[in-house]
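Cross-posting from the modeling subforum.

Setting up a comparison between two proteins and wanted a second pair of eyes on the formatting. Protein 1 (sequence, then structure tokens):
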Amino acid sequence: MDRHPWVQGIDAAITVCDRAGIILEMNDRAVQNFARDGGAGLIRTNVLDCHPEPAHSKLSQLMAAEETNVYTIQKHGVKRMIYQAPWYQGGEYGGFIEISFVIPLEMPHFDRG
């Protein structure tokens, strides 16, 4: 992921896979976050192999249906927002992207309705 400097500089892990689940790109933060699992060595492997059940089946279904999944997790006292969504190129389904970033344990919510 070196075409856009902001992709490396943002404090969020970005992982991009193709429609079959093969990881195409990971920014520096994603490589760091997944260092114990192989880091940059995960590129050209299948993202589904990185997810145990039931997450493997859930992600497989999301990819097949081209659906978005958004949730939070907390691990070792750190809360993260996880955003998983299809990406498109020229209107054609290209694959799936996952963006993960740290959020405060408690945070304000504003209804701008």
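Protein 2 (same layout):
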Amino acid sequence: MKVYIAAPLYCEQELEYNLKIDTFLGESGFDTYLPQRDGGVVSEMPEIVEGMPKGEYVFKKDLEAMDKSDVFLFLLDGRVPDEGACVALGYFYSLGKPCVGLKTDTRSLVGGEDNLMIRMALKKICRTKEELLEYLKGC
């Protein structure tokens, strides 16, 4: 089963956490697509990649990966959900494939919960890696 991992990737701490979750899933037997590794980090890329502007290249590569993935994982930690991951969630949800969140952070934007549009697109929001693993095994 291929899991697409959507998460913020703008600082060292976020990048390290994303890799930690990716490693955990890989060691648990899942194949993953991690955008920072498999698509690229725009701020670290040359302006043109494979004949395309770097933003267009990353966007197309990530869409192709979502098309080929079985499950969408949204890493929700942080003060607010990552904007790019929100767009990716909408795209993946429209494919009719399962979407799950992992949120270990206690901060929430709206009355103790995340935005309704995010909550409704996610079949489940897990609070621990172990809970996530159990959910993914059932997909």
